């Protein structure tokens, strides 16, 4: 057990993780991933596009729903060939669709 202080994590799992093969496989997958903050920054960018100083009265659940829709629209757009050709145009369309969804959500809220 003293090896876990002086040894790299991945080599420790190689040496001592054979008793728990499922956990060892999971540790290999997790420890082999490079660390990066780009996913967090992308998420913060989406949040700042949806909830700004002018639009700060959205509830947290509504904001999360809009982020979910926004992210899925972006993923769907990336599968299309047009996205590769006109990436900026599709990004703007996604933003427009997100804003339209926000308007629809606010209209639904007012009607309740």
TrEMBL record:
<dbReference type="Pfam" id="PF05699">
    <property type="entry name" value="Dimer_Tnp_hAT"/>
</dbReference>
<dbReference type="InterPro" id="IPR012337">
    <property type="entry name" value="RNaseH-like_sf"/>
</dbReference>
<feature type="domain" description="HAT C-terminal dimerisation">
    <location>
        <begin position="7"/>
        <end position="73"/>
    </location>
</feature>
<dbReference type="InterPro" id="IPR008906">
    <property type="entry name" value="HATC_C_dom"/>
</dbReference>
<dbReference type="GO" id="GO:0046983">
    <property type="term" value="F:protein dimerization activity"/>
</dbReference>
<protein>
    <recommendedName>
        <fullName>HAT C-terminal dimerisation domain-containing protein</fullName>
    </recommendedName>
</protein>
